[in-house]
Design a protein that fits this description.
Number of strands: 7
Number of domains: 1
Number of helices: 7
Oligomer: single chain
Strand content: 15-25%
Bound molecules: flavin mononucleotide
Radius of gyration: 17 Å
Distance between the termini: 13 Å
Strand order of the largest sheet: 2-1-3-6-7
Structural class: alpha/beta
Largest sheet: 5 strands, parallel
CATH topology: Rossmann fold
CATH superfamily: Flavodoxin domain
CATH architecture: 3-Layer(aba) Sandwich
Shape: globular
């Protein structure tokens, strides 16, 4: 059983989002020690955004079903994973651009989706995805980051989605430690939710 952990937290060891997601992962691993973890640590992976040259090459790889090339291998890790955890801070009303570049990399025709009747059909094996994010202020209904990642996961075939959020961490009136303590409990509950989906028939 394999889980893909996607770290899209540019502040590295100072990141509260990454710490929250690692807390979730540790809780899950305690309950499921046999879980194999694949990591995509985006701040150090130097994934390339698509441009005309890479797009042409990627389309040819998709036609050949060549999933070993660096242009498609990220998508292969995603397609194979039984569950996915994504950690990204709330930046500029969504998330850091490294996460959008990752999304471009996992969108691989004939591997993670194909078209039927002009509509994309997801091919990811994953049963569930959890998105962990923290924000300086309140995101309210304008959390485009969470809404977008939920749509990406569902379009590519992962049916169950859950978000763990800690909001208002940077407000002068806030008590960030209390907010993060509550969020850690939420992360543990999301880990139990993931475990159930991973172990049910
Ligand atoms: C470049 C940048 C953009 C940000 N944009 C927003 C924003 O649009 N809305 C918001 O509420 N907070 C914003 N913040 C604050 C972060 O969401 C908040 O500090 C978050 O907890 C950072 O997570 P981290 O500790 O994992 O880096 C931004 C912070 C940075 C550095």
């Amino acid at each position: 059983m394999e889980l893909l952990f996607v770290n899209a937290c540019p502040r590295g060891k100072d990141s509260r989002t990454l710490a929250l997601a690692e807390h979730l992962l540790r809780h899950l691993q305690q309950k499921l020690p046999e879980l194999i973890i694949t990591r995509h640590d985006l701040p150090t992976m130097r994934l390339q955004p698509v441009n005309a040259r890479r797009l042409k090459r990627k389309e040819a790889l998709c036609d050949q079903r060549n999933w070993d090339d660096p242009l498609t291998a990220i998508g292969a890790d995603f397609q194979r994973a039984n569950a996915v955890i994504i950690a990204a801070p709330y930046w500029d009303l969504s998330f850091p651009s490294i996460l959008k570049t990752w999304v471009e990399n996992i969108w691989v025709r004939n591997l993670t989706f194909f078209y039927r009747d002009d509509k994309p059909v997801g091919l990811a094996k994953g049963k569930a995805a959890v998105y962990v994010t923290t924000a300086g202020s309140y995101t309210a209904k304008h959390d485009w980051g969470t809404l977008y990642i939920e749509d990406v996961m569902k379009t590519l075939g992962i049916p169950a989605f859950r978000a763990v959020k800690a909001e208002a961490l940077d407000l002068l009136s806030s008590d960030p430690e209390t907010i993060l303590t509550i969020a850690r409990t939420e992360a543990e509950s999301a880990a139990d939710w993931l475990r159930k989906r991973l172990t049910e028939e």
